[in-house]
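Input (structure):
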């Protein structure tokens, strides 16, 4: 049976069999989660905002869903085996028999995670690539964003390089714990850039290829992220550092912002939040008008800010405030939405002109002083004034790239650090935190910075850039090939 390839943005293979399979698989995953840990499921009903008791059953259910879909794609002729095979793999991964040798158990568990990690690439090759249409590569350059990435990652590194060992000392150590604010800069940048790209493609071509969007996200984010996790898993198996299977599973499935995890992979919470945002943003943005998008997201940001404030100052009711207020999706995703709102507002020329006049270099400097004063408390929580200030500061340099702040951010050195910022963010945790409550020589200043930059440079030039170039070439070759029919 043959059918047409996917239409743009339509993730339905054939006719309706895959959507039904997806719905059925998700339903089975929910039942899997429920019966695996029924007491925790009832606890979730009693307190639906406390997710920690459901960590293992939830991760088990997600692995089951992912493996079922992957096996369905890989083995279309025996699709009826997808569910039982996935169930067996997941049960052995999360609940190995007690008689199994520990080494075999760990190898099996990591094998299951490796299969789960391979599924996005399998989907990119078997599902997304056949939908290839000529890629839209005429995106205009947005000035100062690379410089802002450099600022964000340097703030994060300054925080983590001082954590624990406090090797730098003095006023720098006392004031450097501002990593959360650096991550907020990353979030606003991501929301602004991704939304701008989607809107630009829509305006130029009249459509947005969701297949291409997710295809590029897979090859931009996952290879470097999974490479880091592979190194951590190998060292964990070798007993050089403490690592648990649930933490690795949460990182692979991009749910690390929902549960506590070992410090070495704790920074994956931000990657998880961004991936969740990337999953939701295009569908939300393209399903409504831009005016309605603003009507929805503006009040939503205000509600999330109020919700976060209430959680923060109601610690007697919410004893786990520290972790959840910093990392959980419903308490932090508004920072990304601020960037998306800015991108939508930038489509209005009158708004840009008005904002350019308001954000004069003098007023921009005043806003920067306000932000520094507001964030003066080390390791402070995210607030609405901070998010608004970061959003306006980024807008000011984008609108006035020739001003003194824009020129600083456009320095070649700043742009270069911005280019390698993803690798820096991944590997700074590895070299800035002790593995077993103690610090090796390469985790102390200045060696931790030297190794962080060295590995990040290697990651960018040896893996990230070549893979992006290869994936783009492969997409374009497929788009130029004669249209082929997909097997149903």
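Output (sequence):
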């Amino acid at each position: 049976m043959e059918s047409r390839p996917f239409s743009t943005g339509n993730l339905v293979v054939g006719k309706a069999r895959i959507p039904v399979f997806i719905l059925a698989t998700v339903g089975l995953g929910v039942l899997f989660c429920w019966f695996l840990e029924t007491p925790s499921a009832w606890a979730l009903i009693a307190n639906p905002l406390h997710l920690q008791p459901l960590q293992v059953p939830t991760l088990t259910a997600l692995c089951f869903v992912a493996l079922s879909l992957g096996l369905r794609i890989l083995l279309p002729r025996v699709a009826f085996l997808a569910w039982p095979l996935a169930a067996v793999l997941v049960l052995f991964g999360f609940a190995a028999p007690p008689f199994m040798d520990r080494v075999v158990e760990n190898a099996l568990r990591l094998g299951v995670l490796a299969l789960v990690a391979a599924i996005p690439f399998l989907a990119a090759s078997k599902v997304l690539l056949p939908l290839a249409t000529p890629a839209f590569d005429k995106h205009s350059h947005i000035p100062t964003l690379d410089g802002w990435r450099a600022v964000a990652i340097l703030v994060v590194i300054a925080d983590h390089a001082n954590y624990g060992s406090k090797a730098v000392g003095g006023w720098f150590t006392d004031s450097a714990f501002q990593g959360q604010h650096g991550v907020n800069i990353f979030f606003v940048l991501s929301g602004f850039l991704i939304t701008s790209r989607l809107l630009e493609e829509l305006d130029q071509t009249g459509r947005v290829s969701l297949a291409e969007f997710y295809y590029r996200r897979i090859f931009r984010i996952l290879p470097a992220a999974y490479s880091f996790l592979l190194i951590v898993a190998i060292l964990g198996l070798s007993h050089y550092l403490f690592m648990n299977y649930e933490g690795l599973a949460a990182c692979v499935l991009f749910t690390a912002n929902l549960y506590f995890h070992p410090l070495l992979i704790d920074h994956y919470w931000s990657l998880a939040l961004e991936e969740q945002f990337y999953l939701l943003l295009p569908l939300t943005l393209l399903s409504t008008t831009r005016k309605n998008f603003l009507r929805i997201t503006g009040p939503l940001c205000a509600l999330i800010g109020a919700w976060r404030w209430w959680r923060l100052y109601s610690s007697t009711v919410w004893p786990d405030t520290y972790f959840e207020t910093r990392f959980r999706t419903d308490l932090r995703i508004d920072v990304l939405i601020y960037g998306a709102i800015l991108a939508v507002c930038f489509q209005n020329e009158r708004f840009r002109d008005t904002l350019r006049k308001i954000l004069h270099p003098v007023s921009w400097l005043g806003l920067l002083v306000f932000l520094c004063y507001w964030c003066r408390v080390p390791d402070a929580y995210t607030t609405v004034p901070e998010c608004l200030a970061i959003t306006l500061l980024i807008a000011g340099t984008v609108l006035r790239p020739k001003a003194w702040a824009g020129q600083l951010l456009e320095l070649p050195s700043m742009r270069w650090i911005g280019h390698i910022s993803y690798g820096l963010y991944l590997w700074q945790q590895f070299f800035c935190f002790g593995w077993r409550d103690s610090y090796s020589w390469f985790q102390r200043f200045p060696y931790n910075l030297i190794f962080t930059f060295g590995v990040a440079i290697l990651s960018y030039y040896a893996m990230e850039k070549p893979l992006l170039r290869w994936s783009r070439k492969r997409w374009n070759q497929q788009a130029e090939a004669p249209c082929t029919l997909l097997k149903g």
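Notes: The two ends are 5 Å apart (CA to CA). The longest strand covers residues 2-3.
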